[in-house]
Write a structure and sequence with these properties.
- By secondary structure, the protein is α+β, with helices and mostly antiparallel strands.
- The chain has two domains: about 425 residues, MFS general substrate transporter like domains (Growth Hormone, Chain: A, Up-down Bundle), CATH 1.20.1250; about 60 residues.
- About 65% of the residues lie in helices and about 10% in strands.
- It has 21 helices and five strands.
- Strands 1, 2, 3, 4 and 5 form a five-stranded antiparallel beta sheet that branches.
- Strand 4 and strand 5 form a beta hairpin.
- The protein is globular and about 85 Å long.
- It comes from Terrimonas rubra.
- It is found in: Cell membrane.
- Keywords: Cell membrane, Membrane, Transmembrane, Transmembrane helix, Transport.
């Protein structure tokens, strides 16, 4: 391979083929989280929406928790048989599992079997993703010139956020073209994004079938120096295992919580705590993602010039210092008590909605939409529970939700989300090159995949679940969920500052 001739390596063909497949895998993985609220009503019994949502997020988190096991299984395969065929297999597994989730009947049809089947498919998704990222990042890095490794691998780094972007876009496209009831029905529109996956995966498998093996691995294989036991060499040798631990606790752990707070937790917070209506909460995320995504490549490029360490740690530090102020702004600007300076134009009353409870009682929700002069509006929902026997009201509550922001506040929120995702690009853009340079070729797939997927899958993937759990446990404090990512990022920042090196390893093809 000519290191000084990008065209000779077909580097852009390599990046395109790797990136398309990896983006589709992220799309598959994240549509579950994007639809968590709807899925919770389909695969769990009615009666306790908070418990159902927590259970759904637990299943979502389970997919993250098994990612390290996928890293071990497929990382070993990647170091034994090659990068190309391993991430072809992971792509097929991910696409098949996603498609099948869209075919599982709801709780009303098959009972407890519904969430069990979804959990099993979600675990298969997690295993597949555990093998995908390490293969794609390694494959691109082993084609890239040493002096531009950060820049070229940063294109792979955009795929996770682009997968999230595509997932949001597809869900919005489906939802905005049908009624709320049609979208949320047992066999409604929420299933379409899952079914679409099989087409995307088919296209990507075809593209990847025409790729050649990584030149460094091919050279290693032809010389007979392929590792006979990648797991043993990665984790039983003290020097290499030390690097695995340093990668996890000094970089990837913090990167993981920054990634999921800036994107997943932010979207969940805007919808559940700030109470924004569906379209605005999703489009705010889309704008933030669209404007921030080019910075993955910028920070990857910059890391080739000044090193990876301080860019990643700066992203963590910014998150630690600004998360609470930014999320406080979300709460303050969506508090309808602060909207009283604007006159009410009109009040629209919707038809009451009734649900029969398991005990025979009936809950009735009467919703009024309050329209303000500045273009914003919000719902006031009066909910009453009526005893079935004598129709007497036994409990009455009042809640607010589904708020629509005025234009100025809407763009302010989009700007704040952009900042959150900018931190993501700082920690995530350089990290593929950083991990590749830490480990030798013959055990690279295995060695880099495990810390990456523990940091992202366990520490990062648990951010939405732990955040909701904390806010449920301490209901008076909507910001309490932020202490988990702030704490993890702070620990990682300290370890990384002390122990990481900023030196770029120019030779990875040992």
């Amino acid at each position: 391979m000519k290191k000084n001739d990008d065209s000779a390596t077909g580097i852009w063909k390599v990046i395109s083929a790797s990136s398309v497949g990896t983006m589709i895998e992220w799309y598959d993985f994240y549509i579950f989280g994007m639809l968590a609220k709807t899925i919770s009503t389909q695969f769990f019994p009615e009666g306790n929406s908070t418990a159902a949502l927590l259970s759904t997020l637990a299943i979502f988190a389970a997919g993250f928790i098994v990612r390290p096991f996928g890293a071990l299984v497929f990382g070993r395969l990647g170091d034994l048989i090659g990068r190309k065929y391993t991430f072809l297999l992971t792509l097929a597994l991910m696409g098949g599992a996603t498609f099948l989730i869209g075919l599982v009947p709801g709780y009303k049809t098959i009972g407890i079997a519904a969430p069990i089947l979804v959990l099993l498919l979600r675990l298969l998704q997690g295993l597949a993703l555990g093998g995908e990222y390490g293969g794609a990042a390694t494959y691109v890095a082993e084609h890239a010139p040493a002096s531009r490794r950060g820049y070229y691998t940063s294109w792979i780094q955009t795929t996770a956020t682009l997968g999230l972007f595509v997932a949001l876009g597809v869900i919005m496209l489906v939802k905005l073209n049908m009624s709320e009831a049609a979208f949320n029905a047992e066999w409604g529109g929420w299933r379409y994004p899952f079914w679409t996956s099989i087409i995307l995966v088919g296209v990507s498998v075809y593209i990847r079938m025409n790729m050649s093996e990584s030149p460094l691995f091919a050279k290693l294989k032809s010389s007979g120096h392929v590792s006979k036991n990648p797991l043993k060499e990665s984790f039983s040798k003290k020097a290499n295992f030390k690097m695995v631990l340093l990668a996890l606790f000094g970089a990837v752990m913090g990167q993981g919580v920054i990634w999921y707070t800036g994107q997943f937790y932010a979207q969940s917070f805007l919808e559940t705590k700030a109470g924004l209506e569906f379209e605005q909460s999703r489009t705010i995320m889309l704008w933030g993602i669209a404007f921030a995504t080019p910075f993955f490549v910028f920070f990857g490029w910059l890391s080739d010039k000044i090193g990876r360490k301080w860019i990643m740690l700066a992203g963590m530090l910014l998150g630690i210092l600004t998360y609470r102020p930014i999320f406080s702004e979300f709460l303050k600007d969506t508090d309808t008590k602060n909207w009283t300076t604007h006159a009410i134009i009109n009040t629209e009353t919707l038809a009451p909605v009734q649900h029969v409870l398991p005990d025979g009682n009936i809950t009735e929700k009467q919703t009024n939409i309050i329209h303000l002069e500045n273009g914003s509006w919000y719902h006031i929902t009066k909910q009453q529970t009526i005893a079935a026997a004598d129709k007497t009201v036994i409990n009455v509550t009042e809640t607010t939700g589904n708020k629509h922001l005025p234009q100025g506040t809407y763009w302010k929120f989009a700007g704040l989300v952009f900042l959150l995702i900018l931190y993501v690009t700082m920690v995530y853009g350089p990290i593929a090159a950083f991990l590749v340079e830490m480990f030798p070729t013959k055990i690279r797939y295995t060695s880099m995949s495990l810390p990456y997927h523990i940091g992202n899958g366990v520490f990062g993937g648990l951010v939405p679940f732990i955040g909701l759990l904390l806010t449920t446990t301490f209901p008076g404090n909507d910001l309490v969920g932020l202490w988990y990512p702030i704490g993890v990022a702070t620990l990682c920042l300290i370890i990384g500052t002390i122990y990481l090196t900023n030196k770029i390893d120019k030779e990875v093809d040992d």
